[in-house]
## 1
Amino acid sequence: MTALPSTRAAGHDHPLEGARVLVTGGTGSLGGALVRRLLAGDLGRPETIIVFSRDEAKQHDMRLAIARRAAATDEVIYGGWDRILRFHIGDVADPAAIRRALRGADAVFNAAALKQVPNCEYFPEQAVRTNIHGPEQIVRAIGEGIARPGVVVGVSTDKACKPVNVMGMTKALQERVFIAANLDSPGTRFVAARYGNVMASRGSVIPLFLDQIASGGPVTITTPEMTRFLMTLDQAVDAVFAALRHAAPGEIFVPSVPAARVTDLAAALIDGRPIPTRITGIRPGEKIHEILVSDEEGRRTIRRGDYLAICPMLPELTADPIVAEPLDREVSSADNLVDLDGVRATLRTAGFLTEEPAR
């Protein structure tokens, strides 16, 4: 295969052409979208894509869903998928399983996660196992020479910034585990992509609202002040791919995305119908506003094209001075909110609203 880009300056159009790619958590919302984009050749045509997860039913469903794509354009894009795609069952925190999946990998996307906030609060040891010990096992195996991938991309979340819940705390430590790994495995570039709420991902609010609306309500809103970033799965994959292409060792790539009040999300989806709403109170571990870049991180955050790059804290990884003007501020979902019409437009673009709103 051709060499993967080792720094942000590399401009290879197809960095994964002929590569062996491992996607942990490959049957999750983000992992599945990432695999489909890899099959579509967004980064070149890989030799092998290994989908690694611990849910055999989701792997079976994914295999069937890809095999049944019948449109001509899909046949062109997905042709030969059965020669490219491989499925491995295993737990990312299991050393033997992750070592077996890692062998020969040229690139790794770590999308495996325990990510639902309340579940992580009630089962924190499981969140630690998946979100921290899993990355540790990847780093350890690479450090011991089981594989020498050119790049590892950790998939993170806005909840890792100023974390107040177990999910965010464990994801913040995942970021640090991968950043520090650059010191012990200099042949591999460890980077991360951090983004906000993905519309329609498992456990997110939009599928919940749609189910409640279909049942006649009420639509449950935790608190009227709550805001969230809004992005599609494809935008999330774009952020992960941008980190692979352009992030320097230890950098965290953050996309610029809109944010909205959850009450406006509910109103846009209800769309004038007589569906009641009910305030239920904040769930365990929830924030009122999410943050993508903290004020402390802002001092070492620079703009890189359409993304923000948070430079690593470790001085060994920041030998070159930051020459671009730093962001020097916090990026919160309470900032630059789109109005109700903007929410409707965003939902329409994402396919959740198909008609003009009721007047």
## 2
Amino acid sequence: MKKLFIFFIMAFLSSVVVVSAHDAWIQKKGADFHIIYGHGNKLESYDFSKIKEIRSYDLSGNYKKVTQENGIIREIKDPAMLTMFFDNGYWVQTTDGWKNFTKREALQNNLQIVVSERSLKFHKNYLKWTDNFMKPIGMKFEILPLKNPLTMKQGDILPIKVLLDGKPVENAAINTAESHEAVTKTDKNGFTEVKIKEKGFCLISAFIEQPLENDPDAEKLFLSANITFDLK
């Protein structure tokens, strides 16, 4: 009985990590940029209305808002960085798994809630580099590379800083595309280092949770930020 209980707890924790670690990012395919949701090679469909804002930055730090259609961005002229705010909505972890419901919707459907959360995702895709990109751009939650990630090679160490509301955040969990488990956490200055394990497409994510007050639809706010870039 004790072994069965431990197995249930481990399975539950695993499911929490798997769903919470999902990312949303922009990746070029052919002539277009596609907005992708999932983790690693496991991609999933999503509601396109969750894509709230996309910006295209030049090397001077100037930006313009761009649009997407069915998760595809077309006709962008030579961007240096693309950013995105993706509102993943409300989720509940129930005894039947994760549901894209609010807490009130789950209760109306007589579901047993383990945890309820609001999920917001923030993304940066680096295509060219300027040291201006080491400065914050005003996202609620964001990662700042402290070196040019486009010059990284397999095995190199990339220093990063993680900001929440423009201030360094401690104990943000850092993941990569290769693992659901945290590879490191930020210190009190929001700083940590990440080893680049693979060539080609690279994704580094940061995750934090905060209690939500005065929201009848969720108990926690789950924030994630990621950066992506390609290594030759």
## 3
Amino acid sequence: MQVSKLVISLHQEILVDIAFDIQSSLALIGQSGSGKSLTLKALLGMLPKEMHVVLKYNADFRLIRGKTVSFVPQNPFTALSPLTKIKKQFFSSTTRVRELFDALGLEYALLERFAPELSGGQLQRVVIAIALESKPKLLLLDEPTTALDPDTKETVLQLLQRLQKKEQFKILFVTHDINSAKELCEDVAIIKNGKVVERGKMDDVLYNPKQVYTKTLIEANFANRKFRI
């Protein structure tokens, strides 16, 4: 999927002006306020009406939220209804739900439980299952491992890799966690103040960054022991 133009403005102030190409999996990395979340919301059609969006893309499908495009949010603890059984939060057939539960290592018994009864890792895997039940062509990930402990984070990333190979969807992974992006994505685009300042293959950009801003992001992750050489 190639987005040839995405411009988001508010009262004539341009907030985001970027283009990107998702061959298989692309990480969009930047500091808070760089325009990552605005980009996701624009692709999902979730921006407020006062924001003007120009979106042009070349693809063999329309961006239809819940059908061709699905979304995994940052916080699994607020993503599901706490008063509805897990099984009632799916809309597809039992066969499809069980297929996804098998792929994600989830027990069928969880379908009879409520969200507060599940652990963070179980909740996030259920959210991923819900996002994938319609067999989308594009999966948008908004910091999906932030609320998870390191071991659970690793498990979720590995499951996403396996599912992508099996289900053949593209990934746009919005994050500031470079190490997670490195594990999941082939390509990367670095965003600053609503503009892409560097892009390329993940290893090329991470090990040979050309922009000072990119170097700063990498050094910050390394200092926090997030980025593994």
